[in-house]
Amino acid sequence: MNSKPKQTVLTIFLAIFVSFFTASCQKESGQAPDSFASRSSNILKEVADEYWNYLLEESIYLRLKYGLKIHKHPDITFSYAKTQSDFASSILEKLKEVKPEELSHEELLSWEILRWDAENFIEGLKFYWLYIPVTPYSSPIPFVHRVFTTFQFKAEEDLDHYSNLLKKYPPFIRSIQEMLEEQHKKGIIVPKEELGMVIPFLSSLLKGGEQSQFYVKDDRLEAMEEALKNEFQENLVQAIDSEIKPALESLVDFIKGEYLSKAPDSVGLWQYPEGREYYKYLVRVNTTLELTPEEIHEIGLKHVETDQAKVDEIRVSVGFKGNADEFRHFLKTDSRFFPKTPEEIGERLTLYMNSMSKKIDSFFLKTPKAPYGVKRLEPELEGSMTFGYYDAPTASEPKGYYKYNGSNLNERSLVWAEGLVYHELVPGHHFHIASQNENETLPEFRRENIHNAFTEGWAEYASWLGLEMGLFQDPYSLCGRYMMDMFLSTRLVVDTGMNHLEWPRSQAVKFMKDHLLESDTQIHSETLRYSTDIPAQSLGYKLGSIKMFELRDKVIKALGEKFDIRKFHHAILGNGSMPLPILEKHIDWFIEKELASPKK
What we know:
Structural class: mainly alpha
Shape: globular
Radius of gyration: 25 Å
Largest sheet: 3 strands, mixed
Number of helices: 25
Strand content: under 5%
Number of domains: 3
Number of strands: 3
């Protein structure tokens, strides 16, 4: 249930539009010739072109995806953030010239999505200093390292290009240290408990010479002549030891020194200047809903209670003699629920995946062409990720995978496995993201577009479909589905608790321990994720799924006997990710269209 979350101010200033904009906007029935397109359609197309070209130039993510050369690292300075905000403002002004009544339905969706994203982007500038660039989930550092570790050497000029990129790395690291130093002056400092993860994370980068991740080994340089290769590698060692390592050491030493000495014991955004306002902003960006932290907190408490009642029903049905706490201990410790080998996790996930695949045609009109499967997470990531993540198909790997964490088998309960694979793979993330990427009827920016509440909300809604399909035959697997939902419901409680209601982390840890199956290690990392690393991101899962079910109930009530669940799912997925209020408008349009169509 981790999907590489990055909904932070870094996202706002460096990547929130990583995949939001296009080189073309199409009519619902195809792109109309310019001579017949309305003035508003032409403006929309021009705006989208401008955004798309800008992002292709600025976004490392897009340049990696499309195989374009990367010439610079992220600029995290305030001046650059201001430049981006000004650019978004200019685009928003141009969008104001569009007359909605002149647009097709698809164009109208594009126009609304662009406006929503741009407005949030612009508003985020005032919270620039509240973004922390060194926490593991949100730091740009790992993504920049991917540029180097995936760099391909095909010609002599690639050696120079790599070397030039490497020269730009120390200034990038120094800009991060400068930002931390300025935040330190403003009283915005990472809590001590999070620094217990930040310092090891950064210290792991300090290897020198041929042990450094920036060093390029022989097997990557097979296309090079021996003399060129040797000279290049010697220069790399010198640059790593004389420039790269000192810049990183300076950053680590600063954090270990005065920075750490002033770090707060408490967690949560509430303690920083404008922290509460920033949290409310992040709530809106991540949920796309107008809900207050207090309202979300109460929703979470209500759903925790509901889930617990369902688990209690299962406890009674299987004849367990103990109370709720004893049943939870039983599920957390009994050997029957834990894998003996990492491969057993993959086998179980594959079994459930195949069971779901047999039911798909009754619930979906269209499915992605890309195949899907499960594989183990890369070993270097297993220590830093609580679970695993869905990895979408790419040109180099055309199959979508759920990459599971195969480490610490005593913490990998298989009670979760069935609901998890439905969420992460099919019909969850894979059906959404792969279908969206393949959908050539969508403008290109909407094929790349991701909104947290839509993406995670759909995946959680999709996981529940297993119950309607007659799956979850094992009562313990069904219990795992409710415990997984309980996990997402507790997120609403503890995320708002720590960031808005001034909960100490110990209170959040206790609340999660009292209700969940997660180990102490998992709860430790998760509470830091919510309170410090990526506040509010975790809210999108449960709130998004609630909205999906509300929309489905709305369609059933409006259509009655004309309701077709396959068409409803196509209405959700067939137009790609969008903020939930815009999705609701789209579903209203879908209802009108269905009511007007003849009954079959």
